[in-house]
């Protein structure tokens, strides 16, 4: 019994792993003069700028608030109130009974899935915790991170998005032809949306354009498949394009905010997800209507149950889809392997659960929990935020096919089937986000790596060496 209790305490208890939550220091590592307004303002600006990068990258509101509060507390502003909403960060610091409080505010005007920048800011935050970094030095390091160019060329990102769509089409049962068409279609979607974004078109209409491009080649190829002597399923091509468009939305962040106690931010993010998804549906619907006027009629969406004999191919497809998504979001090279493993684990669990007939929603929740849990552990080893692995890992499981099935049914006056499929897609999306949140919580609760030890609540590496026994020399006295 004592051994069991000791084992549980080693796994849980106060031995919490800082996966993406920073451990608070008991005293300031680099205290500042609280009577100096300029220095206090510099610290507050540093804290909200760090929060800006986190919030723009899709980090949850509560995690962003903890990071902002930690930066301020590190420099002596321990009593702070942080308010993080959908696109703003407000920070107010209490400096004592004889000094007025100091406050600042920052508006996040952009959304950027730049995983390299997110990882660099995460490392900077941990460096501020471990070392006596002055506010000016931290400002210079943060400016260097935020102004640095992307680590990969734009064309590499384009090829990564296209390869991701090809992998997803294979995951849905497509062959070489379907994967090739999905690859080329996604390349056109990405380049067209780049041009539309450059001219300032709202993101909703970019999603409409993406849905329009995703459906048109599939419908055209299906119409002339007899003349070309090929056999193609347009639903696999369209669903792959829809998944690519869905992958850039902050679904995980919205549900995570709702679960962790930030309902206002969750409602704003979720409404954005709904609106952008509506843009995709509108674009696909317009394409199907226009091609229908020219006599192109798509077949019903048939769902086939993949056999276990196809499991290796499907798992590899999901793994590469996750890796290509991480590459498209400019993840670091060491994070690509973690994303690949997360995608493989999620696809494997989902396929096995599907064979046991648990349903797509429960299967998605189980797979996402495994992705969140494994992502937290692997991200700890790869020194990258778990958000990178979690978002990339669930990307192959996004309900692109359910959305297309519901839209197809509604366009053919099958209202009940259409609404059921759309609600199923909604349930799958929520299950994925909730599962990732639960998996990350489990990863945070587990014991930290053995190579790390606490020194006054601050984590530093400790290397243990074995003492060698002295060798006795023959004839020695």
UniProtKB/TrEMBL annotation:
One of its GO terms (molecular function) is transmembrane transporter activity. Residues 319-439 form the Threonine/Serine exporter ThrE domain. Keywords: Cell membrane, Membrane, Transmembrane, Transmembrane helix. It is found in: Cell membrane. GO terms for biological process: succinate transport. The chain crosses the membrane at residues 159-189, 201-224, 236-255, 267-288, 308-328, 335-353, 359-379, 386-404, 416-443. It is a multi-pass membrane protein. This is Amino acid export carrier protein. The lineage of its organism: Bacteria, Bacillati, Actinomycetota, Actinomycetes, Mycobacteriales.
């Amino acid at each position: 019994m004592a051994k069991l209790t000791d084992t549980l305490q080693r796994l849980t208890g106060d031995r919490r792993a800082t996966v993406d939550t920073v451990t608070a220091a008991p005293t300031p590592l680099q205290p500042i003069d609280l009577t100096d307004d300029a220095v206090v303002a510099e610290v507050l600006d540093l804290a909200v700028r760090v929060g800006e990068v986190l919030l723009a990258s899709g980090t949850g509101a509560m995690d962003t608030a903890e990071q902002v509060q930690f930066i301020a507390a590190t420099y002596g502003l321990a009593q702070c109130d942080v308010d993080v909403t959908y696109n703003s960060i407000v920070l107010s610091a209490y400096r004592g009974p004889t000094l007025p409080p100091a406050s600042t505010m920052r508006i996040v005007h952009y959304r950027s899935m730049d995983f390299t920048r997110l990882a660099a800011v995460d490392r900077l935050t941990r460096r501020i915790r471990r070392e006596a970094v002055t506010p000016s030095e931290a400002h210079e390091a943060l400016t260097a991170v935020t102004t640095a160019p992307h680590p990969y060329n734009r064309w590499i990102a384009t090829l990564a998005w296209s390869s991701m769509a090809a992998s997803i089409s294979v995951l849905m049962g497509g062959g070489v032809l379907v994967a090739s068409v999905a690859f080329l279609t996604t390349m056109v979607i990405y380049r067209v949306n780049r041009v539309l974004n450059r001219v300032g078109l709202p993101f909703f209409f970019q999603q409409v354009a993406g849905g329009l491009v995703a459906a048109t080649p599939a419908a055209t190829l299906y119409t002339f498949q007899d003349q070309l002597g090929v056999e193609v399923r347009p639903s696999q091509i369209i669903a792959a394009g829809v998944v690519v468009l869905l992958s850039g939305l902050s679904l995980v962040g919205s549900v995570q905010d709702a679960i962790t106690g930030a309902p206002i931010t969750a409602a704003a993010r979720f409404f954005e997800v709904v609106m952008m998804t509506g843009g995709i549906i509108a674009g696909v619907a317009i394409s199907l209507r226009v091609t229908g006027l020219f006599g192109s009629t798509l077949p019903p969406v048939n769902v086939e149950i993949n056999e276990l004999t196809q499991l290796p191919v499907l798992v590899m497809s999901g793994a590469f889809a996750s890796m290509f998504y991480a590459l498209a979001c400019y993840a670091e090279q060491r994070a690509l392997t973690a994303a690949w493993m997360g995608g493989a684990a999620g696809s494997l669990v989902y396929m096995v659960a599907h064979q046991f007939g648990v349903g797509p929603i429960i299967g998605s929740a189980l797979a996402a929990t495994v992705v969140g849990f494994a992502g937290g552990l692997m991200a700890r080893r790869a020194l990258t935020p778990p958000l990178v692995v979690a978002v990339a890992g669930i990307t192959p499981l996004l309900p692109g096919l359910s959305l297309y099935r519901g839209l197809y049914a509604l366009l053919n006056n099958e209202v009940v089937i259409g609404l059921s499929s759309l609600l199923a897609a909604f349930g799958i999306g929520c299950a994925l986000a909730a599962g990732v949140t639960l998996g990350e919580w489990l990863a945070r609760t587990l014991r930290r790596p053995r190579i790390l030890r606490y020194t006054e609540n601050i984590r530093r590496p400790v290397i243990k060496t074995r003492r060698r026994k002295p060798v006795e020399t023959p004839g020695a006295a």
